[in-house]
Write a structure and sequence with these properties.
By secondary structure, the protein is of the alpha/beta class. It contains 14 helices and 16 strands. The strands form 3 sheets. An 8-stranded parallel β-sheet has the order 5-6-7-8-9-10-11-12. Strands 3-2-1-4-13-16 form a 6-stranded mixed β-sheet, covered by helices on one side. Strand 8, helix 5 and strand 9 form a beta-alpha-beta unit. It starts with a strand and ends with a strand. The structure holds zinc ion. The site of zinc ion (ZN) has 6 residues, from strand 5. Keywords: Hydrolase.
C-alpha cells in the first residue's frame, strides 16, 4: 500500500522536506522518500490519532437518542431540561439511570464509539457509573462494547462514582458496591473515578478522596477525580481540594506504592481559575516538585455550559463570569501536564455538540484566546498525544519520526478535496471552485476537516 504527497507535521528530521511518498505493508513503513508528485496535487496530512481522555459512555445521547419506543429502549423525552441547571442535570440523569436497559446502553454506547472512530479517535477512557440505582449493568455493557470495538479502539474502563460515597442515605450502599465490583471484575477495570464535589461537606469530600487513593493503590488502578467543579469564592486559608489531593497522595506514598504506569487525572477544577497568580504558581510548583504523575483535564464544553450562571440580583444580569481551566496556559506558563476532553455528549450536562475532539480543540482557539500557530499545535496535542499521556496509554515511539520500520497503524490521515462542487447555472452543469488546502496543525485546528475527509490507517 502507499500514501503519496503526504505532509507529516510531527516529522522532526528533514524538516526542509514538505511532502513524502510512503509505502507500507502490514502497517509497517517499507519505504519513505521525498514526494515526486506534482505540487498541484492536493496533499494529505498524516497526524497522531485523537483520544478521549474523559468521556461518559453510559449517559451519552440521553437527550438526543430519540430511541425507538419499545420495552428494551426506554423513553427519556420527559427528562429534557427545563431550567438547564446543574441540580436539574444531576436529578434528571439519576432518573434516567433508573430506566437503563442493556440494549439501550449497548445502542447508545455503540453510537458514541462508532461516531468517535469515524471522527479519528483510536483510544478513550470510558466512564461508567456504578451505584445503588444502576448496579453493574453499565459496566457489563461497557465490557461487551470494549470487546466488540477492540479492533478499532483502545478502551480504558473507568468505574465511576457519580454519587456520594460518604454522605446521603445511599453512601453505605454505593461504597460496598464499588468495592465488591473492583474485587469481582479485577483487571477488567483499569481506572477508579470519583466525584468528591457531590459530597455534602468538605469532610466527606476528603474522606471520598482518601478512600479513592487507598482503593486505587490496593487494586493497582489509575485514579481520576471530578474535582473543584465550582466557581465559589475562595475563603483563605481554605484551599481548593486539588491541594488536598496532592497532600493525601503524598500521605499514602503514591510514588512509592503505585505502579509507575499509573496516572492521576484531575478533571474540571474550575475553581482553580479563581486563584491569584501567586497561588496558582505555588500549586504548579507543588505538583511539579512532588513528582506525582498528575494530569489536569479541562472539559471546556461542559464547564462553560454549567459554570457561570446569571446573577439576577445584579443590575447586569447578562454578565456571566464563566470558567474552565486555561489548558494551553497551564502547559505553556506553568509547566503542568494537561489536556482537554469532551466529557458528555447529548445529555443534561452538555446537551450540545457531536463529541468531536477536533471541533472542541477548535473552540479552544476562542475559549482560551489561543490564536497563534504554536497554540494550534498545542491544542492538537491536547486531544491527541497529551490526552494519551494523561491516561497512561502513550508509548515513547509515538513521539518519533515516521521512518522505515515505523508502524502507521492507527494514525489519522486527512485528505484534501481538490474542488468545491456546486450546481452550475440552470442546475444543469457542475461548477468547480478550487478548494483551500489544509497543510498543517493550524489549518486542522482553525477549520476542522469534515469527518468524510478523515480516516484511520489500518
Ligand atoms: Zn465527567
Amino acid at each position: 500500500m502507499e500514501i503519496n504527497n503526504v505532509i507529516i507535521p510531527c516529522q522532526k528530521s528533514n524538516a526542509d522536506i514538505s511532502r513524502w511518498d510512503i509505502r507500507f505493508q502490514d502497517g509497517k513503513v517499507s519505504q519513505i522518500r521525498p514526494s515526486e508528485r506534482p505540487a498541484s496535487e492536493p496533499p494529505k496530512l498524516l497526524l497522531p490519532p485523537l483520544c478521549h481522555p474523559h468521556i461518559h459512555l453510559d449517559k451519552a445521547y440521553l437527550l438526543t437518542c430519540n430511541n425507538p419506543i419499545s420495552e428494551s429502549h426506554p423513553n427519556y423525552s420527559d427528562l429534557i431540561p427545563e431550567t438547564g441547571s446543574f441540580e436539574e442535570a444531576l436529578l434528571n440523569t439519576s432518573r434516567a439511570k433508573e430506566r437503563y436497559t442493556e440494549s439501550d446502553l449497548h445502542l447508545r454506547g455503540s453510537q458514541l464509539l462508532a461516531t468517535s472512530y469515524n471522527q479519528g479517535v483510536t483510544s478513550l477512557r470510558a466512564f461508567v457509573e456504578i451505584d445503588h440505582v444502576t448496579g453493574t449493568r453499565p459496566l457489563d455493557v461497557a465490557l461487551q462494547l470494549k470487546s466488540e470495538f477492540s479492533h478499532l479502539l483502545e478502551i480504558q474502563i473507568c468505574v465511576f462514582a457519580q454519587d456520594p460515597l460518604f454522605s446521603t442515605a445511599h453512601a453505605e450502599t454505593n461504597r460496598p458496591l464499588l468495592t465488591s465490583t473492583l474485587r469481582n471484575y479485577g483487571p477488567k477495570i483499569q481506572v477508579l473515578g470519583t466525584t468528591p464535589y457531590v459530597e455534602k461537606s468538605r469532610e466527606a469530600a476528603l474522606l471520598n478522596i482518601d478512600w479513592a487513593i487507598t482503593t486505587a493503590l490496593h487494586h493497582n488502578l489509575h485514579l481520576d477525580f471530578h474535582l473543584d467543579y465550582n466557581l465559589d469564592e475562595l475563603h483563605p486559608p481554605t484551599q481548593p481540594l486539588t491541594f488536598s489531593v496532592i497532600q493525601l497522595l503524598q500521605k499514602h506514598n503514591w510514588l512509592g506504592q503505585a505502579d509507575k504506569s499509573k496516572t492521576i487525572v484531575l478533571g474540571h477544577c474550575t475553581q482553580l481559575t479563581l486563584l491569584p497568580n501567586s497561588e496558582l504558581r505555588q500549586l504548579a510548583e507543588i505538583v511539579i516538585q512532588s513528582g506525582l504523575p498528575i494530569h489536569f483535564v479541562g472539559l471546556p464544553t461542559s464547564d462553560l455550559f454549567m459554570m457561570g450562571r446569571p446573577n439576577t440580583a445584579t443590575a447586569c444580569a447578562q454578565v456571566r463570569p464563566r470558567a474552565t481551566l486555561n489548558v494551553p496556559s497551564m502547559i505553556k506558563d506553568l509547566g503542568l501536564s494537561a489536556c482537554i476532553g469532551v466529557n458528555n455528549v447529548g445529555n443534561a450536562f452538555t446537551p450540545f455538540g457531536s463529541g468531536d475532539p477536533l471541533q472542541m480543540a477548535s473552540y479552544g482557539v476562542g475559549i482560551y484566546q489561543a490564536g497563534t500557530v504554536s497554540d494550534a499545535t498545542t491544542l492538537y496535542g491536547c486531544v491527541s498525544l497529551l490526552a494519551r499521556k494523561a491516561i497512561g496509554l502513550h508509548r515513547d515511539e509515538e513521539d518519533g519520526d515516521v521512518a522505515e520500520g515505523t508502524s502507521l497503524r492507527g494514525m489519522l490521515l486527512i485528505k484534501n478535496e481538490e474542488n468545491i462542487k456546486i450546481p452550475g447555472p440552470a442546475w444543469e452543469s457542475e461548477l468547480l471552485i478550487p478548494a483551500r488546502q489544509r497543510e498543517g496543525f493550524k489549518d486542522v485546528i482553525w477549520d476542522p476537516p469534515g469527518v468524510e475527509l478523515r480516516s484511520i490507517i489500518n
